[in-house]
Design a protein that fits this description.
There is one protein chain. The chain has 399 residues and is of the alpha/beta class. The chain has two domains: 10-183 and 363-391, Glycogen Phosphorylase B (Rossmann fold, 3-Layer(aba) Sandwich); 192-359, Glycogen Phosphorylase B (Rossmann fold, 3-Layer(aba) Sandwich), CATH 3.40.50. Helix content is 44%, strand content 15%. It contains 14 helices and 13 strands. The strands form two sheets. The chain has a seven-stranded parallel β-sheet with strand order 3-2-1-4-5-6-7, with helices on both faces. It has a six-stranded parallel β-sheet with strand order 10-9-8-11-12-13, sandwiched between helices.
């Protein structure tokens, strides 16, 4: 048998959440593995798929792909999904690695690994079990399931140091945790003037940008309260909100009550890269994140970033160097830091330059290479174990 450290690996990726950062990470990883000669298969769901994921997926002709019905919440139908996954593994395997992404993909990957014998990897992507907005009993349930799946996990890959520490503190695979940061490629940015025209914002205005789903996890209401304080002190400040979600109408109502509606641009769900060059800084008030791609993109656009300490930004932001880190659910602290930068263009420019320097370390190639090394180590360990098991059998015995 050829050594897994040298031969082409066969990888199965499983994901239910095919949108935003998780979907992007999975396709970046798949493309990178294909470029390195791996045989890559993807099982995915369509319940939470976005247009960006679908377009990229359709363009990846070398990727073997199949739709599997999966829901976000725990459901008896998950047993059927597991059956489909196991059948796929038996029909198209053997696979050297099965890698599940986010909670549902991670659970299916590890259960399939237990049944089929393939090493199973899991990337939580800021798993739902870490969500502070969930009722306590739900967090307990998800964490109990994760602890039960720990023995079936060859490696938990955290996308940020905060995620790795949380997993270790909860006794989730503490001996099998690696940190591999997300990465991005080169951005194609619009000229600043063109971006401002698209946003209908004066060229001389100061713009705070936000990109993300309009949901409680992202705390856009906190950002609006902070911006209300900023707008009083800086009359030419604007807030640009890129994203959609169930909170949108409530947020629009809140902006009217705060008397800042005329200073906000609601751009809806769009590709954010066209607008980053029109921002002066990027702000994120999230209550829970992994390692956000939008922060990486903001840094690659040369922007200072102000984010909460729960946003998975520890490895991205040097507090007071390329941005500021503030406590979650504290609009006063967020407003103070927004005012610090918006009132000091020299510091804003210096922070933006620092962002460009720091983001250079977060490339897609680095992310793929680090993940592939982990795959090869796990595949080699599994191969050695299988060889040892065969050699330890009495002559004439069968498994």
């Amino acid at each position: 048998m050829q050594d897994p450290m040298d031969r082409t690996l066969r990888i199965l990726l499983i994901v239910e959440s095919c949108s935003a950062g998780t979907g992007r990470h999975v396709l970046d990883l798949a493309e990178g593995l294909l470029a390195r000669g791996c045989d890559v298969h993807l099982l995915y769901a369509t319940g939470r798929i976005d247009g960006i994921f679908r377009a990229r997926l359709n363009a990846m002709s070398a990727l073997h792909k199949k739709v599997v019905t999966m829901g976000r919440a725990i459901h008896p139908q998950d047993l059927l999904a597991l059956l489909v996954v196991c059948r796929y593994v038996r029909a198209n395997g053997p696979f050297d690695i099965i890698h599940g992404h986010a909670s549902k993909g991670g659970a299916l990957a590890r259960l399939a690994g237990m049944i089929t014998g393939a090493p199973a990897f899991y990337t939580p992507h800021s798993s739902i079990m870490f969500d502070p907005t969930l009722p306590a009993w739900k967090r307990w349930l998800y964490r109990t399931i994760e602890r039960g799946l720990a023995p079936a996990t060859a490696c938990l890959i955290a996308v940020a140091p905060e995620e790795a520490r949380t997993a270790a503190a909860l006794k989730l695979h503490a001996a099998h945790i690696a940190t591999v940061a997300n990465g991005i490629g080169k951005l194609d940015l619009l000229p600043r003037r063109e971006s401002r025209l698209l946003m209908d914002i004066p060229e001389a205005a100061l713009v705070v940008g936000f990109v993300g789903r309009l949901v409680a996890q992202k705390a856009p209401d906190v950002l609006l309260h902070a911006f209300a304080a900023v707008s009083t002190a800086i009359p030419n400040a604007y807030l640009v909100m890129i994203g959609a979600g169930p909170m949108e109408q409530a947020l629009r109502d809140l902006s009217r009550r705060l008397e800042i509606a005329h200073r906000i641009r609601w751009l809806g769900q769009r590709e954010a890269r066209a607008f980053l060059s029109g921002f002066d800084l990027f702000a994120m008030a999230s209550r829970k994140e992994g390692l956000p791609y939008v922060v990486l993109e903001a840094m690659a656009a040369g922007l200072p970033v102000i984010a909460t300490s729960t946003s998975g930004v520890e490895s991205l932001l040097a507090n007071g160097v390329n941005g500021f880190v503030v406590p979650p659910d504290d609009p006063a602290a967020l407003a103070e830091r927004l005012l610090t930068l918006l009132s000091d263009p020299l510091q804003t420019a210096a922070f933006g330059t620092a962002s460009l320097h720091r983001v250079a370390y977060f490339s897609i190639d680095a992310m793929v290479d680090q993940t592939l090394r982990l795959y090869r180590t796990a595949a080699n360990t599994a191969s050695n174990q299988q060889r040892s098991d065969r050699e330890s059998q009495p002559e004439g015995a069968t498994l």
